[in-house]
Amino acid sequence: MKNTFGTAFTVTLFGESHGPAVGAVLDGLAPGIAINPEFIAHEMDKRRAAGAISTARQEADEVEFLSGVYNGFTTGTPLCLTLRNANTHSKDYTRTGHLLRPGHADYTASQKYLGFEDPRGGGHFSGRLTAPIVAAGAICRQILAAHGITIGSHLAQCAGINDTPLPTTEPELTETLTQLNTRQFAVINKAAGQEMQQAILAAKQDQDSVGGLLETAITGLPAGLGEPFFGSVESVLSALFFSIPAVKGVEFGLGFGFAPLRGSDANDPFVLQNGQIKTQTNHNGGLNGGITNGMPVVLRAVLKPTPSIAKPQNTVNVATGTQQVLQLHGRHDPCVLHRARAVADAMAAIGLVDLFSQRYGTLWQTGGAPHCTV
Fold first, then answer.
1. How many degrees, rounded to 5, is the angle at CA 124 between CA 319 and CA 245?
2. Taking the complete model, does pTM exceed 0.90, yes or no?
3. Angle subtended at Cα 297 by Cα 257 and Cα 347, rounded to the nearest 5 degrees
4. I need a surface site. Which of 75, 193, 293, 333 has the fewest CB within 10 A?
5. Mean pLDDT of 11-33
6. Residue 227, Cβ neighbours under 10 Å: how many?
7. Where are the beta strands (DSSP E) in 1-72?
8. DSSP characters for 158-173?
């Protein structure tokens, strides 16, 4: 089972939705990184369920460090963090335990693990596993912020309602990302955000759910990060983003918008700005040949509507081998988009710390290695 990401810096996930705890082991962290509990708590808050537009399951999500941290600093040895599962309602799953939930991994999990998997709340396939990802990503975001790198996401579209597009100039984009990082519901246009939330509530009233588009941007990156072909920045980040539950598509820059264009429209002309090489446009999302070109990296991910809905759905009872109708009970999100934005930010940060550590060594994380400024 592949639960580890990374090369020079790795993150390994463990736990199940209704088990004692979920957590992660981070290996390849440099010694001497100051751990900021307040910032980690802030990132966890962005993922936490809140209000009628989220699930009623409430977890404290207090991060506990079992190893790798001493006197508030990383030791350089494997860091193990855990988050306890306290608010589990396993009985909600017992009454429908033999019914395959449409859109979920119940059938595929049983085929892979021969029926020995933990099915409660989705087990290891649950969105609950994104909690330790956000905690790990918070540590990575601290490392990147110290190098002047900003990451942020917004709900570019939810239930068919569009947010204001991200700015195209880097200073304005950085400021917008900074503002988005302070908002519980991450939109630029607050009126659009209100419409989105009303649409989520309407879907919930109809015993249904909605999805949408997350747009993530990264500023402050130098040119030259990443590898061609299998180690490209697109390869690394898309692999991480596709690991987020509900993500079914990822694109960079114009993405599928390139399809109708000619090369003269798609290319980004190079220009000199204050003695630095930049591009006049950023259609390629800050990447050429799989390597950062010094412009902001911009990517989008589409998240499908939450598969857990209360509407009756056709399914199969694996115990009896009969066709049945499933009506789910329990606590479910009518939309995960607003909570998943914290996961997207974390995944981007985890991928970047590994890419930087591969290029400059893990001591880069604390400024102990040379940094290319060309």
1. 105
2. yes
3. 105
4. 75
5. 94
6. 16
7. 4-6, 10-15, 21-27, 64-67, 69-70
8. ETTEEPPPPPSSHHHH
Asked if residues 11 and 29 have their Cβ atoms less than 8 Å apart, the reply is no
Instruction: Give the closest residue to 48 by CA, choosing from 364, 343, 304.
Output: 343
C-alpha 163/C-alpha 273 separation (Å) is 30
- The CA-CA-CA angle for residues 330, 48, 305, to 5°, reads 55
Give 232-274 pLDDT, tens digit per residue. 999 999 999 999 999 999 999 999 999 999 999 999 999 999 9
Do 283 and 291 touch, CB atoms closer than 8 A?
A: no
Per-residue DSSP letters for 266-307? H---EEEETTEEEES--TTTTEETTEEBSSPEEEEEEEPPPS
For the chain, what's the residue count?
A: 374
**Cβ–Cβ under 8 Å, residues 131 and 44:** yes
Write the pLDDT tens digit of every residue in 72-108: 999 999 999 999 998 655 565 566 668 988 988 888 8
Orientation of helix 37-47 relative to helix 130-145, angle to 10°:
130
Q: Which has more pLDDT, 159 or 52?
A: 159
Torsion of CA 276, 282, 285, 291, to 10 degrees: -40
Q: For residue 282, give Cα distances in angstroms to 202, 298, 351, 352.
A: 37, 9, 21, 20
Residue 210 has pLDDT above 50, yes or no: yes
Angle 319-322-327 from CA coordinates, rounded to 5°: 85
Residue that has been written with the tokens 């991994």 in this structure: 105
Give the chain's largest Cα–Cα span.
Answer: 72
How far is the C-alpha of 266 from the C-alpha of 285, rounded, in Å?
11
- Estimate the share of the chain in helix, then strand, then coil, as percent rounded to the nearest 5: 35, 25, 45
Rounded distance between C-alpha atoms, residue 343 and residue 9, angstroms: 18
Angle formed at CA 13 by CA 12 and CA 17, multiple of 5 degrees? 175
Measured distance CA(278)–CA(270) in Å, rounded: 6
| Strand residues in 29-143 grouped as ranges (E) | 64-67, 69-70, 73-74, 79-84
Q: What are the structure tokens assigned to 162, written together?
A: 């569009």
